[in-house]
Amino acid sequence: MSEKKIHEDQKYIDGLLKNNSFIIQAIYDEFVPKVVNYIKQNSGSRDRAQDIVQETLVTIYNQASEKNLQLTCPFDAYFFLLCKRKWLNELKKSSNKEVTINEDVLSKGEEAQELAFETSVFGEKQALFAEMFEKLGTACKDLLKATFKIKSMEEVAASLNVTYAYARKKKSLCIGKLTTLVRESPKFNQLNN
Amino acid sequence: MKEQDYIVFESYSSNELSEDEVITFEAKLKSDPEFAEAFKTYKELSSFLEHTFENEEKSNAFKKNLENISDSHFNENKDVSEFEGKTKTYTLFKYIIAASVALLFGIFTVNQFSNPTYGDFNNYDAISLTVRGANDDLLKTAENTFNTKNFASAEEAFKQLIELDKDNSELKLYRAISNIELSNFETSDNLLEDLRNGNSAYKNKAIWYLALSKLKQDDKGACVDILKTIPEDADDYKRAQKLLNKLD
Lengths: 193, 248
Prior knowledge:
The complex is a heterodimer of chains A (193) and B (248).
Chain A: H1 10-17, H2 21-30, H3 32-41, H4 46-67, H5 75-93, H6 110-135, H7 138-150, H8 153-160, H9 164-184, H10 186-192
Helix pairs in contact in A: 1-2, 1-4, 3-4, 3-5, 4-5, 4-6, 5-6, 7-8, 7-9, 8-9
Chain B: H1 3-13, H2 19-31, H3 33-54, H4 56-86, H5 88-113, H6 136-147, H7 151-164, H8 169-181, H9 185-197, H10 203-216, H11 220-227, H12 237-247
């Protein structure tokens, strides 16, 4: 991961991260039409394509922001593979009917495959984490929200009207509870293998 | 895992264990895979929560902006594709126009490239710098003056911005371009050399503009040497090869 050369297309990742409208627009103009065509040719609609693209860009944004995503391949290949993967997963999920997939002719670089795989696992984990977070009790949810928003544990304790020591302990136990929920879910084990 | 384990995870993560406790903890990570797995997930979740709640506003702003751009992109193109579907003559007509434009463009470029000058290449795309946050006014000024080719004012703005944000490669690149336009080659070339030796996403762009700067200075030898160092995966590789052919 560490010493690979960063691709010039990192500018798209940085642009997303900075919420740069000019770059986002460029992504839609240059890379999105290909994705829309692919989805339309594979049992999808324009509307579904619009959602897939949007969700994919949010995942890239999150990975860039949380994990400092560094692009080591062209954005085109990476983005297309990600959208494709996401679409195929959707099809699998909802496929009572027969699904025909036109495997695309272009072979993508290994680098792009690897990076797209990493990002899509990241995205699925995020979705799982968010789902499990919702299963926590209200007290835990409130405490965790406050902890990560306010940062200072003293202030958190004061705002929730509890002692510092209690807030500290509660924080670790709530993340602990979440850890248990996540580790027990079958989906997590699939993702980790 | 027991409650106590999670309490230790938190203390270890926030560097609150004594030296001895750290040693014990790290030994357990090595010897107990179950414990290590749980700690890994605990850390992953902490990072997830931190990111989610700390950046909530920022990422909501991003999602909103994305949605707007997405909607206008998909609505706009819908009209186009519906229109195209209606008439075949229109499509044919379109090809004829495209062919004529290509032909014209061909003639035009042949003429234009016969003796390449800096002016053949200095057509930049509009830049966009504003982000929600600090220095917004200054960024807006830089962006507007650059896009309207008022390079003297752009230089002024970029200079101030770089003082506030010394490692920003994007700003350095645009400041360098402004200085090429103003023929302040010392400033432009120093900035570009700096980017060229760095490892930012703008490295290859900087090499390309350094070559153009030399072209504007009529130093064709240096221009050729620099063009040859542009790697194949660079955006400007093709343009660089064309220019090389003309110069060699």
